[in-house]
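lol forgot to send this yesterday, sorry. struct tokens for the thing we talked abt
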């Protein structure tokens, strides 16, 4: 096992300087801490050999420099890839039926809305919903029935009343 006491002293003596150095390279305090942590992890693995170096701190700076350079290369590759990629196609606007359904769902209590969504949109069984929501199967069935009744009530109202529920938008 490497000499832990010698490494601890080395860490205390060089840590603040190395953090400042890494911060100067990256301009990001969190990234600087990550680079320095990685450099010290590598130093610990090689401490027996590294402790004999005349300038062990120089070795650490070299590791931090290389790690920082790798980071900039990685960022450049990511930027280049992002710049050459086509932007995604614009999403289609929701249909009028979808807007009405979402508006109607918003009028329901959270448990009813969640049970309906899990059952009808995610095809979850009543038993699975009961486990996920921490309720009995009978309660889930009740939520589903009440939720369907609430949706039917809201969705059969005249368009003007549904528009009012949706926030006053004009629905035709």
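and heres what i got for the seq, position by position
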């Amino acid at each position: 096992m490497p000499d832990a006491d010698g490494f601890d002293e080395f860490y205390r003596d060089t840590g603040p300087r190395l953090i400042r150095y890494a911060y100067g390279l990256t301009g990001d305090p969190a990234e600087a801490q990550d680079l320095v942590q990685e450099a010290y992890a590598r130093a610990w693995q090689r401490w027996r050999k590294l402790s004999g170096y005349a300038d062990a701190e120089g070795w650490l700076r070299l590791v931090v420099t290389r790690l920082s350079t790798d980071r900039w290369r990685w960022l450049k590759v990511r930027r280049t890839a992002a710049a050459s990629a086509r932007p995604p196609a614009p999403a289609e606007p929701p249909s009028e039926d979808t807007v009405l359904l979402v508006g109607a769902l918003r009028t329901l209590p959270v448990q009813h809305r969640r049970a309906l969504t899990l059952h009808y949109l995610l095809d979850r069984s009543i038993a699975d919903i009961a486990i996920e929501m921490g309720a009995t199967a009978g309660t889930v069935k009740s939520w589903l029935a009440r939720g369907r009744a609430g949706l039917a009530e809201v969705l059969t109202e005249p368009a003007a009343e549904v528009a009012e529920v949706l926030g006053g938008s004009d629905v035709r």
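Residues 19 and 33 are 6 Å apart (CA to CA). anyway ping me if u want another try
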